[in-house]
Amino acid sequence: MFEVFYKIFTILGSIGLFLYGMKLMSEALQKVAGEGLRKILASMTSSSIKGVLSGLLITAIIQASSATTVMLVSFVNAGLITLTESLGVMMGATIGTTIKIWFLTLLGVKFNLTTLMLPLIALSLPLMFSKHKNRKSWGEFIIGFAILFLGIGFLINAFPDIQSDPGIYNFIAKFSTYQYQPVLMFILFGAVLTAVIQSSSATITLTIILSQKGVIPYDLAAALILGENIGTTITANLAAIVANRPAKRAAFAHTLFKFVGVLWMLPVFYPFINTIHKIVIYFAKDSALSDSYVLLLSLCLFHTVFNIINTVLHLGFINKIVKLLNIIIPNNKKREKSKLKYIDSIMFQSPGIHIEPVQKEIALYGKRMAKMFLLLQRLLLEKEELKYDKLIEKVAKYKSISDKIHKTVDAYITKVAEDNLSHHESKLISEMQHINDQMQSMCEIIVLVADEIDAKNKQKIWFTQPMRNYLGEMFEKINESFICLDEILESDYKNVDIANMFTINNSVKELKAELLEIHHKDLNDNEYTFKAGNIYMSILNNCEKISNLHFNIVSLIK
Length: 558
Hints:
Blueprint: H1 2-33, H2 35-43, H3 48-62, H4 65-78, H5 83-109, H6 114-128, H7 133-158, H8 166-173, H9 180-197, H10 200-212, H11 218-231, H12 234-239, H13 245-265, H14 269-284, H15 291-315, H16 318-328, H17 355-381, H18 385-417, H19 423-458, H20 465-489, H21 499-524, H22 530-557
């Protein structure tokens, strides 16, 4: 009994070592690639073919199709790419991940590299302690690479050869008495196993090792690989739970793509895998390759050819797939206004990809503040009590939304800042942190003005018509300032021209100074009460503060 538990935990520990190594490798490569990943997607999603190539390239770089898929869900959620553009990339990612399986098979299974891994870890240590971020990331990559192959080595040693334990063969042989029943069962088992482990690379590597040891015959190993292709989609679907509708569609498209692939494969399964095996045997006939290694090459070729054919078959139907997804996952008519549109908790798969979504979210924050400010003029002029009360409620609602946005964006930016960012990215993140704070200050000032107007009305303090006209003139200046701010926040933060904002800010100051002189004269002439004058000047002062905040934001990102 002890030996059985020891063997089970040895296998689990080996898989854990493999997964940890894969995680280190993938994250290190994402840190090194960073901004480049987003640029690749931005430039290579204009057509389906380019999308497939970009998905293949990115997955080949970061060695994790799940990371690529979750990244795509994040991009769709953030509005950086459309659902249609994401589908081609997603298909390319399934081909890209097959490159890794070839690599692991040719090196990890065929050759025992375990003895080389410890010296490799030793060589990576100087890089790990380097202050240069890229060198440190490369150090993490090398250690991840070494740990991954140590895990493979332990996995190989954990499973006995078929000759040493014929009982396993007898157990598996029972399934071979039927044709498609065991295939369906192993497809299901592969899907469940991959969904639990959340790494198709780990489960496919495990399948290859079991096949090499003779534990699983070729056909059932191929069935496991089909199931593992479906199981790997669980990661993106879990990520999309908190995302918007387009992102949910992107995640479901991944599952649909893999599931349909398995469906068309089932009727031709045995002819297909036998043809693949014959091709490998034909090209390997003059070599000294063992039968078990020919079997491994057949599995790798099956995995690659299946994903290529499945991609080709789906490529011409992308627009129809998008229409189907829109039917399956319709738009939600009741949209939650307080929910962030461009960022969420799933977007931490790669440093550098978070910057643009934060920029978009802050630009949207600015638009919300502009709409909130428009309520002030309506509050000042509204005479009907019911409509007035609704306006007060709207201001309170905007304040609640703003508090949530500020808090969430602040936490998000803090999390992003912990990543291995470049100097340019760190500067942008710091700027956005300050802008986010300025937006919240803006909201508090607007609430303060709304409270002053409300206090004025409740205390039956009346403004003269000239006072209302002057405030209307000031409000128009601030609205103009908001428009200018929105245009700048929606830019790429490069070559920002602050001349227009400078002009508006100066005109606000000049208007306020002019109105201050008129105020002193009117107050002396008893045109209105001292209390009315205090509230009036407080509103003007707060409008100037908002204008100054706009100018500060623009100066910050110049």
